[in-house]
From TrEMBL:
GO terms for cellular component: membrane. It is found in: Membrane. Belongs to the EamA transporter family. Keywords: Membrane, Transmembrane, Transmembrane helix. It comes from the Bacteria. This is EamA family transporter. The lineage of its organism: Bacteria, Pseudomonadati, Pseudomonadota, Gammaproteobacteria, Pseudomonadales. The chain crosses the membrane at residues 21-41, 47-69, 81-104, 110-132, 139-160, 166-184, 196-214, 226-248, 260-277, 283-302. InterPro entries: AA-Vitamin_Transporters, EamA_dom, EmrE-like. Its main location: membrane. Pfam families: EamA. Residues 30-154, 166-302 form the EamA domain. It is a multi-pass membrane protein.
Length: 309
């Protein structure tokens, strides 16, 4: 009669270790690793086409994770796999292709990064207009203040390039692609949600196909035998994909989409710190003040969400 007791207690005896990590610590790691993607793109542009690097980045992650996710993927229904694959195409292929192709066509990197950093505003607008969600005015105020901070940080890097006018819409479309994927992921039923690693594997798998088609029409998909190319791929595999995207989805499981997106307002100043440490780029008090302003905006968003709960 007493046999069932240890079995019911077993799930509580082995809690998910990720739940034990404080959310602010995960968000700090997210900011650090997400900003590494922009640094990796800048580093790799001297050694290979950007799409070739992101193609091999997705291929390597797919190969590394396959042994760990194959069993769960076989047990997942086809409808769930297709929905998660759609989210992956939007979140990874859509976002990265929009930003990188905009830069490749002549959109200045600073301007492309600013468009990509409109993610919190884009997500809030989509949630309000498409999904009918109502956000408190304090959240909107925090998002606007955070955006002002981003503009202050990136002001020195902003310039109007010689790209075709339509090319400036690519980074915006990339940002909207990630925003749609994020909201779709949050509304996906628990029964159709994959685990963190299977989700990341599927995203990289479908995105590698998309990047293969995009880059294959322009040139060879063969890896370039150089140390710079290998380091570019390894950097983006470890920090930008496993770290950045992995932590993005992990934080999204524990917080609202608005909170996770607003935290990324600190990505531009951290990117500047990466650039200072790796490329010797100058820092300025304007960047520091922009980071402080973004921090105030994020604090307002977090405080408003805490009050609403």
């Amino acid at each position: 009669m007493n046999q069932p007791t240890p079995m019911t207690a077993h799930p509580q005896a082995t809690p998910d270790w990720r739940q034990a990590i404080p959310l602010p610590l995960l968000e700090a790691a997210l900011i650090l690793t997400w900003s590494s993607g922009f640094v990796g793109a800048r580093f790799s542009i001297d050694y290979a086409p950007v799409l070739l690097v992101v193609f091999w980045r997705c291929v390597v992650v797919t190969l590394i994770l396959l042994p760990f996710v194959a069993k769960q993927l076989r047990r997942t229904s086809w409808p769930a796999l297709l929905k998660n694959a759609g989210i992956g195409l939007l979140a990874m292929a859509g976002y990265l292709a929009g930003v990188t192709q905009g830069i490749a066509l002549g959109v200045p990197a600073g301007l492309a990064a600013l468009f990509a950093d409109l993610l919190p505003m884009g997500m809030a607008l989509l949630a309000a207009v498409v999904l009918g969600q109502r956000l408190a005015w304090q959240v909107w105020a925090g998002l606007v203040i955070g955006l002002i901070g981003v503009v202050l940080v990136t002001h020195g890097a902003l310039a109007w390039g010689d790209a075709p006018l339509w090319a400036y819409g690519l980074p915006l479309l990339g940002m909207l692609s990630l925003a749609i994927a994020t909201l779709w992921q949050k509304r996906l039923p628990a029964s159709e949600s994959l685990g963190l690693l299977p989700n990341l594997w599927l995203q990289c798998c479908v995105s590698s196909i998309a990047f293969a088609i995009a880059e294959g029409t322009q040139g060879s998909l063969a890896p370039i035998p150089s140390t710079g190319f290998v380091m570019s791929v390894l950097w983006t595999v470890g920090l930008s994909t496993m770290g950045g995207y992995g932590l993005y989805w992990l934080c999204l499981r524990r917080a609202t989409a608005t909170r996770v997106a607003s935290v990324l307002y600190l990505s531009p100043p951290v990117t500047m710190l990466w650039a200072w440490a790796m490329f010797g780029e100058a820092l300025s008090w304007q960047m520091v003040s922009g980071m402080a302003v973004s921090g105030i905006g994020i604090w307002m968003v977090l405080r408003a969400e805490a009050r609403s709960r």
